[in-house]
Each structure stands twice: as structure tokens, then as C-alpha cells.
Write a structure and sequence with these properties.
By secondary structure, this protein is an alpha/beta fold. 43% of the residues lie in helices and 14% in strands. It has 15 helices and 14 strands.
């Protein structure tokens, strides 16, 4: 059985066949770095992590690109009415937009590490690839698909073959297609047309010289330019959140295909929305939770990762604290079951092959991780020989990234029946106490650093809902 993935453009599942045999090229829309990533962002990025792990598990090599949007996209005069994410954050903090972008880029990388995401091969910054964006705009202009109005250069979507096939958008029926056009709709011939280049006003921090004067590129040109540079005009899989399907992905696809006469992405994967208590995340609702918010409630990043993996990536997720607590308990039970079972077991080794086959079938069915996790739970309760279960845990955790192999190995480190637990060293207890103080003070950078030192000492700190955190021998 071959790996099958759901293609948004085809609106159905189809076997995955890479352009280059044995190698998958993947582009993921990354963060706009003006704030900490919230849990909805992280659920979307988890899709790429699971996809890459699944491809490698299935025998493919991978090359992944995830962009960093680090420049503003609005005119200064629009900032008073509509927030430009990078520039407005900089104003509020009294810093330059580049300083804000650099700070939150590093915060993004820390969160990715805490979520156990495999790193991308390339993280291109939009601000460092304007030359490539200008090159694509020039090519589009030479092909007669760009027009200038009011000092703005626009893409004529009626000249793009197959426009709307990805998102299902119909010309004349959709909303204005470009988020940076909020104050300049009056210049366009039709709502769906979008900016390729915008003129810079005096004092603008993000601006570049171009054949069309001093200005900056439209949002949609960014991903098209960076994907083509690092993956070529045709690559295997484009990943992102479902909210980007239109207009961003539709427009990036239209530009890239029009400029190169190539297919651009062969397959489009989209992660469904994450809601909080049934509501969209927003500042007014005060529900844009981050990993720090989860940590303050005693929820570890791996608990949240497990919670996400219990729902299929195309299924909308409704995050609730009760649901998170239930997921954390289930994850804890799984780890405990693995640890107990790995100590011995008298089940048939042949049964492992059945679990192994079913896990692979779940994975190959459009990354059905919830079903795969159910199979892991079954295996942990099946009484398999310890060595067999530990081998399965190592195999499966290469996909799940939950630390299952470590959990299975814990059984070997436990004292014999009637034996004494080794006392936790005083210096480890001191580190744990300092970490708890840092966590309560909101200094999560220091808390993470202390957690790392505790792990280096051979212990795991486990946060609990009430009372002091527990220390557990690794």
C-alpha cells in the first residue's frame, strides 16, 4: 500500500508520487513574526512535522522550506485604522520593525523546539528575497498580465489559467483578494486582482528600489518567489492552514504558474482551523493561547502535541481546557502502560507484526494519526515482550514525536519489586525549585533553560495541575 494524501485542489485522496523518485520537496507557509505563535499556528505547523516524519518512515528523503514573513505590508496611513502586524507591533514596543521581527523569529524557533518539530532545511526570510520577487514581477509584466493604476502594479487574475481551481473561488463573487489592498481598492479593475508592487511613502522602514520606483512587494509574491528559488518551478507538496487557501495560496499559485508555465505545487495539504471553546481566537476574546499560557496551567508542550494528534489534521479542533486535561491524562496512561509492559510481557512476538502493519496502514491513509495512536494504546496493553514493545515504540515515535521510546525504556530503570527508589539529588531539587519560581514569575526562557539542565542531570520535571511539580528519573 502506498502513502495516500488528500489534495485540496483535487478534493480527494490520491497516492503520493514525488516528482523526483524517492525525494519529496515541501514548502510550508511560516509565521509572520510580530508576536508569539499561538496554539492554532502550532497545530498548523505540526502538520508539516508529521508529514515529513511520515514520508521518512515510508522511505522517502525530504527537503523542506518554511518561510519567515518579517516585513510589513501596509501603508503608514492605514496603520491607524487597520493593524499592520509587524509595524504596529514595533510601534507598540518602541522598537524598529526589524528588531521586532528578529525577536519573534527566535521565539518561533524556541516554540518549534519545545513542540519537537523537525527543523526545516531552509528558513528563508522574506526581507532577504526581494530581488527574487522583483524578478517574478518583471516576468509577469513582460507577459502582459500586470497593469499599473494609481502607482500600484496589479496582477490581472483573468489572465491566470485555472484561477480558482484550488480554492473554488469564482471571479466576480469573492471578496477583495489582497490583505494589503485594504486602503487602495479604488485602483483595481476588479476585487480579485491583487498587488504585485506598492509605492513607498516617505519614512517607510521596509522599501526597496525597483523598475516601478521605491516600494515593496505584495504579500502573495513572497511565497511564490521563495518556493521557486529553493524548490524549483515544480515541487511536490505545499502545506498551510486552511485559512490561507484563499486568497494567499490561490494567488501565489496563479503568479507562479503564469510566470513559469509550470505546475508549481503538485499537491496541496491544508490543516483545519483550531477554535477555543467554540470561538475563533482573537485579542478581544483573550483566547490566543501560547505555549507559555499552557505552561502556566501545567500543560507541557508534549501534552498539547498529543492532544492535537488525537484529531485528524483535516478535522477542525475545538481546544478546551477540559479536553486538554483529558488528553494529558490519556497520554500519561499511555506512557505508564508502555513503561509497565516493557518490563516483561508474555504476549506473542508475532502479534507485533499485526500492530506494525495496522500502524503503517493508518499512516498511509492520509496521515490518520488518531487511528495510529489508538493502535499504540492497544499494543501497550497487549502484553508484548519488553524488547519487542520497545522496538515498536522506537519505530512509531519516529512518526509521532511524543517520546514513546523513552517511556518504554522507563520500565528498565525501575527498581525491582520491594526495592528502593533512588533519592533525587539535592542539586536537581534545587534546579526544580528555581524553575518553578521562574515559571511563576513569567520568565519562561529561564524556566526552559532550567528544565534542560534537569534533563541533563537525568531527570524529567512533570508539571501537575495542583501542587509542586514532580521529578522523575529518565
Amino acid at each position: 500500500m502506498a502513502l495516500s494524501l488528500y489534495d485540496t485542489a483535487l478534493r480527494q485522496k490520491a497516492p503520493f508520487a514525488p516528482i523526483r523518485p524517492g525525494r519529496a520537496g515541501i514548502y510550508t507557509c511560516g509565521p509572520t513574526v510580530y508576536r508569539y505563535a499561538h496554539i492554532g499556528n502550532l497545530r498548523t505547523y505540526l502538520l508539516t512535522d508529521v508529514l515529513v516524519r511520515a514520508l521518512r518512515f515510508s522511505g522517502f528523503s525530504t527537503f523542506t522550506v518554511q518561510n519567515i514573513t518579517d516585513m510589513g505590508h501596509m501603508h503608514e496611513e492605514a496603520l491607524e485604522r487597520i493593524e499592520d502586524k509587524v509595524v504596529a507591533a514595533a510601534r507598540a514596543a518602541g522598537k524598529t520593525a526589524r528588531e521586532i521581527a528578529a525577536f519573534f523569529t527566535e521565539a518561533f524557533f524556541r516554540d518549534c523546539g519545545r513542540m519537537n518539530f523537525l527543523p526545516a532545511d531552509v528558513y528563508p526570510r522574506a526581507s532577504e528575497h526581494v530581488t527574487e520577487m522583483i524578478g517574478i514581477v518583471k516576468e509577469l509584466e513582460s507577459r502582459g498580465v500586470a497593469y499599473e493604476e494609481g502607482g500600484y502594479l496589479y496582477f490581472d487574475v483573468t489572465r491566470a489559467k485555472g484561477y480558482g481551481e484550488l480554492s473554488g473561488a469564482h471571479l466576480g463573487e469573492g471578496e477583495a483578494a489582497e490583505r494589503t489592498d485594504v486602503s487602495i481598492h479604488r485602483h483595481k479593475k476588479r476585487p480579485e486582482d491583487f498587488t504585485l508592487w506598492l509605492p513607498a511613502e516617505p519614512g517607510r522602514e521596509f522599501s526597496w528600489d525597483s523598475p516601478w520606483g521605491l516600494g515593496w512587494p505584495g504579500w502573495h509574491i513572497e511565497c511564490a518567489a521563495m518556493a521557486i528559488k529553493y524548490l524549483g518551478p515544480e515541487f511536490d507538496i505545499h502545506v498551510g492552514g486552511i485559512d490561507l487557501r484563499f486568497p494567499h495560496h490561490e494567488n501565489s499559485r496563479a503568479m507562479a504558474m503564469t510566470a513559469t508555465d509550470k505546475r508549481f505545487a503538485s499537491r496541496w495539504l491544508h490543516a483545519a482551523h483550531l477554535l477555543v471553546d467554540g470561538h475563533k481566537m482573537s485579542k478581544s476574546m483573550k483566547n490566543e493561547y501560547t505555549l507559555e499560557d499552557l505552561d502556566a496551567r501545567g500543560v507541557a508542550p508534549m501534552d498539547f502535541r498529543y492532544y492535537c494528534l488525537t484529531l485528524h489534521y483535516r478535522t477542525p479542533m475545538n481546544f478546551t481546557w477540559g479536553g486538554q486535561e483529558a488528553a494529558a491524562r490519556a497520554f500519561s496512561r499511555l506512557r505508564e502502560s508502555l513503561a509497565r509492559s516493557a518490563e516483561g510481557g508474555d504476549g506473542s512476538p508475532e502479534a507485533a507484526e499485526g500492530f506494525r502493519r495496522r500502524f503503517r496502514e493508518a499512516l498511509e491513509d492520509d496521515l490518520n494519526i488518531p487511528r495510529a495512536i489508538g493502535i499504540v494504546h492497544e499494543a501497550a496493553r497487549a502484553g508484548l515482550p519488553g524488547g519487542v514493545l520497545r522496538a515498536l515504540a522506537r519505530e512509531w515515535d519516529a512518526v509521532l514525536g511524543l517520546g514513546l521510546a523513552e517511556a518504554a525504556a522507563e520500565g528498565l530503570a525501575r527498581p525491582a519489586a520491594g526495592g528502593e527508589e533512588t533519592p533525587v539529588p539535592a542539586e536537581v531539587k534545587e534546579l526544580a525549585a528555581r524553575r518553578e519560581e521562574a515559571r511563576k514569575a513569567g520568565d519562561f526562557t529561564e524556566a526552559d533553560a532550567l528544565r534542560a539542565r534537569i534533563r541533563e542531570a537525568g531527570y524529567e520535571v512533570i508539571d501537575v495541575k495542583e501542587g509542586a511539580p514532580r521529578l522523575k528519573k529518565r
